[in-house]
Input
Amino acid sequence: MAIKDKIKDSLLYKRLEDNRKFRLFLWVILFYTLMLFTLSIHFVTERPMLEVGEVCPSDIQSEMYLTFVDERATKERQEAALQNLEDVYEIDLSQYNSLTIAEITAYFSTIKEIVKKPADYLAVDDAAVAEEISLNEKINALKEIGDLSLSDEEWRQIAVLDERALNNLQNQAVNIASNVMSSGVLEENLLVARNKILSDVDADRTLRNASKELVSEILANINYQATLVYDKEATEAKRAEILEEVEPVQKIIQQGQLVVGKGEVITEDQMQALEYMGYATDTPVLVIVLGLAVLVAVIIAICKIYLQYFAPEIYHNERQLVLLMLIILITIVLYKLILSIELSPIPEKSAQVGYLIPVAMGTMLIAVLQDGKLAILVNTIFAAFVGLYTNGIPFMIVAMVSGIVSVIGVSNLSQRSDLSRTALMIAAANTVTIAALGMINDLTMDVIFTGIIFGLFNGLFSSVLTLGILPFLENIFGVTTSIKLLELANTSQPLLKKLLQEAPGTYHHSVLVGNLGEAAAEAIGANGLVVRIGAYYHDIGKTKRPYFFAENQFSGENPHDKISPTLSTLILTSHVKDGVEMAQEANLPPIIVDMIAQHHGTTLVGFFYHKAKENDEEVREEDFRYDQKKPQTKEAAILMMADTIEAAVRSKKDATPGQIEGFIRTLIKGKLNDGQFDECDLTFKDLDKVAQAFTRVITGIYHKRIEYPDQKTMQKQQEKKGK
Output
């Protein structure tokens, strides 16, 4: 059995697959653990009661005589003593011998092998000729060695040397190089050493002509290894010896001596004395972790209660809950990353980095992908964490403001460029808020300006992060945003292009249905964009057999006249199933796939049902109904009504607006009586508003036009005027 099958057969897998509550419990435990871990990284640190730079709350006097080492003064004395410390180096010829000399030897070994190769006297009768041929072959072989650039004549002189002469040349090359390298050469001085070696070769009077050129070429092309290396142990030993000789600086505090006065800013020297006096202590790690554990549990409980009562559609959706937890985690992790950046050497300016925390990013993601009201709640949590992380109320206030503004900015998000507008809104709100807080806290202008710069960049930073993360979350969690829907409205989309080219009548019908449906949806507070995009794609299944549908029959022939009512019904109803399959293959969002599947519900194909009944009284009504789910949402129900009404009203060309409205209400009532709206939450009031919206749009589309006279009539009118 494959491992995959074993996993699927395991008890845990079956429990996870079948038990949503158990899965959700594990997700919450994972989220809780990761949140606690992330927060602990920041908060589990040594926290003295008093810190350098803080204002002392009261006078602190020494209750006893104290003597201790002044670490700062001692360290300064040690650093002064170490200023004259020089690193210790030692001569190490191991790398030089094993690599550099080996390269010299390799060159000469190759030359020796070529030179000592005997002439082949058996190939040529004349020995002198054979010798000359052999010499030329040796010269050609020598010319192929490495990067040695000798002339033919110089190679000829080398080729006639015996082994003893070549050995002497090799020894001279090694000696010349070793004379320079054995005295010790640092890595950074290897080029200088190489030039010195080549200079020594040039000055050597025992080398002449080709021999000197050969040695020079070899020594110019080899890799030299440093022979003077850093001795870490000796240097550290010397450093330790110097430090041992430095006398530590003793500091004395008398009993009753005032160490820090009330209102004074604690210095490093004073802090050292306070530590010896017991005014600094470490908070136990367990206490900090326990506090964080309780805090995270409270936050999870608040979110659960809110979702349960005010956002049940998210509370009962596992994917949406996991998405919410992931966005919160990503945002909290970014807090730590941002605050770890030191953007200015001036502490007061660097501290303003808290204004750079991208709270708006997390808030915008929740608002776009889930719910704006939920985003406001989570923004409050984000702002509270900013206050904890930075220990500053101004940063928390700015985080709160930027988050709320970001929700307002993306509330009507219709395209990705709208995020740019939101970025400007966040930047403007941050600027005003930071400037106001700076004046309240009496900060200097340069510090306020630094905060404003961070606040401005926060708007851009948050929007860029949102724009980058949004597509991944859309795809991973199957969330359909308005941006995604608008992309689907582009006629360059393959399915829409196919519909326009292969079933143009259906395409134009779909556009009209979209206009009708969007107006009706907006009238009752439903999602008009979902209805419009659903309408564009609801009949894509008709492209499988376009000429079986009336709107695509341009020749006047109806193929249904030649087939039975049962087969006609099967062909008509199959366009829904075909459309669902095509939509799934094209990876359309689930919400659009559902609209395609539900836009006919279980309605009766009345024309062919009655036609079949005329021929056979035993015909079953169930065989002439669409076999799909009834509309589950207001949007799907509106699409069903718009689809039916647009097709039916076209036959009422000369009807008055009142007649059109009556006809529309009759069609809607028919769907209602047929039970098609039983599984969605439409009210009678909604149906009334939908009927009014349909009437308004249809009377605008099919209004009466002035009948213009033909050419002959116009000519007669002109003649009468002339007479």
Q: What stands out?
A: Strands lie at 60-61, 66-69, 89-91, 228-230, 250-253, 258-260. Residues 89-230 form one domain.
